[in-house]
Amino acid sequence: MKEVINEYNVVPLPVTMNEQPGRFYLNSDVPVVVNASQEVKNIASSLSTTVLDVAGIKLKPGGELHENVPTIVFDSIPGMEKEAYKLSVTPQQIKITASTPNGFYYGLQTLYQLLPVAIYSKERARNAEWSVPCVEIEDTPAFRYRGAMLDVCRHFASIDYIKKFIDVLAVHKMNTFHWHLTDDQGWRIEIKKYPKLTEIGSQRSETMVDYFYTHYPFKYDGKPHGGYYTQEEIKEVVAYAQSKYITVIPEIELPGHALAAIASYPELSCTPDSTYEVCKLWGVFDQVFCPTDTFFQFMEGVMDEVVELFPSSYIHIGGDEVHYGNQSWFTDPEIQNFIKEKKLVDEKGLEHYYLRRAADIVASKGKTMIGWDEIIDAGISPRKAVVMWWRHDRQHQLVKALENGYRVILTPRRPMYADFTQFGAHKVGRQWAGYNTIENLYNFPEPISHLMKGYENQVMGMQMSLWTERVADFKRLDFMVFPRLIALAEAA
Ligand code: ACM
């Protein structure tokens, strides 16, 4: 029987990984040689810092390559893909090769995974053997967008939890954090021009227990819930993510899912004389932003601050689940006049006008809008919008988006919604919605790849999305997100 000496616990599995006999031993005679930019030198010194903190080994900074001295080398070469790297480990040398800091960062993540798991501890680890199994790895991602969404509106998440979430994304070479910051049940981002958004909109008086019709009449928990991020905290998270080569994409929802904003500023609704409260129920509601100049000025003001906080070239503006069934869009003479004036045919036409104008506002700030797949029908130029496909049961919407030239991010509810249960028998999660197994994620997007044939360049990538109606604490959050998110990292 072949003797197994080395273990290779690398997740996601590299494109090629040739296991070799022997190991490289870390010790204080090992120099770190960097033939690359200052940014890569910083990545290399983060390795030295980690090894010093955790292993107590002081690698030698800088210096030249010496024959017969085991060395760690970061070597920049031109021409590799943006996020690609090579990692070669022999008893004499650890060498990471890449063309960009992103590639070096990922090479380093793989190196960490090959070290004892104690490398991830926050303090000095005893009893670990600081060596790396020999290997030849070449790696590049299958998709340029590898994301995870977290809804912090239904339940708030602390900055510490967000950073931990980002840590786990980075370890698994995910590159995008989609931060769902506004919804009916809470507005979570400080906007200095509109202070009531957080003074009023970030707090709800109580929350429904379970889901619609689990109890009838509905039950409420009687406990206030709230929280928001200051602009300083948001900058801190964005910088933290950036240091791990993760882009943060904010989502500011419109025109639906707007009750927290409308509770703060009722003039943003079509019935400005009504009073509203931050929503205590889960679901989809008829009170949406009214398409008035007041609203579009508001959106401009919000976007002006958002684009300053988020360097991402994309801003998500929602666009899903716009219900206006019971409300005044159908009866309000002003709105009906507006529809006629703009030759919009009907209320649907008004929704689409809205989305086109939102896309223009985002474009005027030098950014590209992302919207949920409802936006496909709005007639927005594909140069100005990216479609996030979520309705797995409407495959024709995915096909239409691709045929119409849109770039697409795949986050179909099945299998990409992490709030769905993981097993048929589970009680934790949205059981009514079906369940998303870890196998479904590993296998994605194979079951729908035929729909994307010929349009592969427009498919930016995939994302797991976690809505938190039924996920109220971090332990449950961890349970719902991991390890399915890591299975997605494997697929992406
Ligand atoms: C969504 O789940 N409404 C995008």
Structure notes:
The chain has 492 residues and is α/β, with parallel strands linked by helices. 30% of the residues lie in helices and 22% in strands. It contains 14 helices and 21 strands. It has an eight-stranded parallel barrel, surrounded by four helices. Strands 1-7-5-6-4-2-3 form a seven-stranded mixed beta sheet, covered by helices on one side. α3 links the parallel β8 and β9. The longest helix has 18 residues. The two termini are 35 Å apart. The relative contact order is 0.10. The mean pLDDT is 94. The protein binds acetamide.
* Number of DSSP-assigned strands: 21
Radius of gyration, in angstroms, nearest whole number: 25 Å
Bound ions, cofactors and other small molecules, one mention each: acetamide
For the terminal residues, how far apart are their CA atoms? Answer: 35 Å
Helix count, per DSSP?
A: 14
Structural class: alpha/beta
Unreliable stretches, pLDDT < 50, 5 or more residues?
A: none
Q: Roughly what percent helix?
A: 25-40%
Strand line-up in the sheet with most strands = 8-9-14-15-16-17-18-21
Shape: elongated
Give a short account of the largest sheet: 8 strands, parallel, barrel
Proportion of beta-strand residues = 15-25%
Overall average residue pLDDT? 94
